[in-house]
Design goal:
- By secondary structure, the chain is mainly alpha-helical.
- It is built from 10 helices and no strands.
- The longest helix has about 40 residues.
């Protein structure tokens, strides 16, 4: 995966970074934890500036969460609860869980979006409850943008700070990314196996 990410950046420059970060939100197995440090490292070679790297990563990330927000708005809480009543095991959520999450989000929406954008796997999914709760889009976009800039900046600056040392550690990036994906899959399967439906 590291080879694909690097070749995309080298071929398309900052637009490649934006595209990869957009896809990271649509197709999570392409992790930002791989994309942005590598982009930061490439900026040390003069291929692009670190400011452009952060701006492109943040823009792509923000665009990638917009479809999830509108999916949440389209579904609405009632439709999602109805779906959970039939297929809750695979969502690992019951109708009661959805109602509780919606209540929490309506009370803490701004903070949830901001902090959620800094947590792996939650970064994308936080957009759905924002849409379900009908959080104003401009408000959602602003708090998402703040969180996205912080997240992409930290990762890009880490790669930039490593500089030439990135060549030493890059061989470990793919195995780590694969390990994280395996842990996420295992956690999901465990939740499916131990799921106990409940009603609100």
């Amino acid at each position: 995966m590291e080879g694909f990410v690097q070749s995309t950046m080298q071929q398309f420059g900052v637009f490649g970074i934006a595209l990869l970060m957009f896809l990271e939100n649509i197709f999570p197995p392409i992790p930002s934890e791989l994309i942005m440090p590598l982009a930061g490292y490439l900026s040390t070679r003069g291929e692009m500036s670190i400011v452009a790297v952060i701006a492109a990563g943040s823009a792509g990330s923000l665009l990638g969460i917009v479809p999830w927000y509108f999916l949440g708005r389209l579904l609405g809480e009632d439709k999602l609860k109805s779906f959970a009543a039939r297929h809750g095991r695979w969502l690992t959520m019951s109708p009661g869980d959805i109602e509780q999450a919606g209540r929490h989000f309506r009370n803490n929406g701004k903070l949830s979006v901001l902090i959620g954008r800094l947590i792996p796997t939650v970064r994308t999914l936080i957009s759905v409850p924002a849409g379900i709760a009908r959080m104003p889009f401009l408000q959602f976009a602003v708090y998402s943008a703040i969180g996205s800039v912080i997240w992409t900046s930290v990762l890009a600056l880490a790669g930039y700070g490593l500089g030439q040392a990135y060549e030493t550690v890059k061989d470990y990036v793919d195995p780590v990314a694969t390990g994280v994906l395996c842990l996420i899959t295992a956690a999901y399967l465990y939740r499916v196996a131990t799921f106990k439906p409940s009603r609100p």
